[in-house]
Amino acid sequence: MARDLGELNREDYARYKDDVKKEGKPFFPPALFHDTVMSLVVVCVIVALAAIWYFDADGVESGILGPWYTEPADPGTTDFVPRPDWYFYFLFYLLRIFEWPETVVIATVGIPTIALILLIGLPFYDRRRERRPSRRPVAMVAAVLTILSMAVLTWKGATAKEALGSELIILVPEWAEEQGFADDPEAVKGAELFAVSGCLNCHTYLGEGAGTLGAPDLSEIGQTNDAAYFVRYLTNPAAFGNTVMGSYAYLGQENLDALGAFLAASKGGE
Question: How far apart are the C-alpha atoms of 246 and 175, rounded to whole Å?
């Protein structure tokens, strides 16, 4: 009996495949109906999640899906570690494997580009009609290895411990010792802000930095003016004739005072 049913099912399936091959499968209504149902399911899920988020949270009080909003970001923070979204963790960790800057291009451009080219070219070099996994050992091994490697890299990227702020922040104790402001907490805080705020993309300080756009070396800038002057300058550089440098007023008065104290303490060291 089981054999007869199996043979009948095979015959029905063969007949169905033959009919589809000869007559095709109409777009309306089967395909349109399936797409409509699936779209409705997706919309219902989104609406349900939005409703749960809205009614379960209360302002900054977090619910299951998070709060409505969070506290305003502090643009002058020195302890924020920027991290990518979870689906980029595998690339994020891949960068840690290669040494900067000699081989980092391999991780950022080389490997992803090669993988993308292989994926785009798949229909052109894999022309076999066989699609059963058991008959395609090379393709299955490649797929499993790709999934495993991405899973491991994603997990490693998610659990990786990062240094706070810019890599330049590790130079702050050295700067403080050489410039003599190690005992001034406000100047040290300003040095940390200076290291992570991108100032050295243009300026130089004690041998570090790019020195571009005509930006001066700030190693001895404290010999020229006091902290109050630097605070005013950072707030509105254009008022002092500097139309290249943007305003740092967004950092807030407390952070500007710290930067001013740091710059005033930078007198060239011993």
Answer: 25
Question: What are the residues facing 217 on neighbouring strands?
Answer: 204
pTM for the model: 0.51
Instruction: State how far the alpha carbon of 4 is from the alpha carbons of 8, 15, 29, in Å.
Output: 6, 16, 33
For residue range 188-226, list pLDDT tens digits in order. Answer: 999 998 988 888 888 889 888 877 778 889 999 999 999
Q: What's the pLDDT tens digit per position in 142-166?
A: 889 989 999 999 998 888 776 555 5
| CB distance 194 to 205 below 8 Å | yes
- On the CB side of 9, CA atoms within 13 Å amount to 6
CA distance linking residue 178 with residue 119, whole number of Å: 54
Q: Which amino acid is at 97?
A: I
DSSP string covering 202-270: T-EETTEE---TTPPB-TTGGGT--HHHHHHHHH-GGGGT--SSPP-GGG-HHHHHHHHHHHHH-S---
Q: Confirm if 206 and 219 have CB atoms less than 8 A apart.
A: yes
Q: Name which of 252, 256, 234 is nearest 73 in CA terms.
A: 252
With beta carbons less than 8 A apart as the criterion, state whether 208 and 178 touch. no
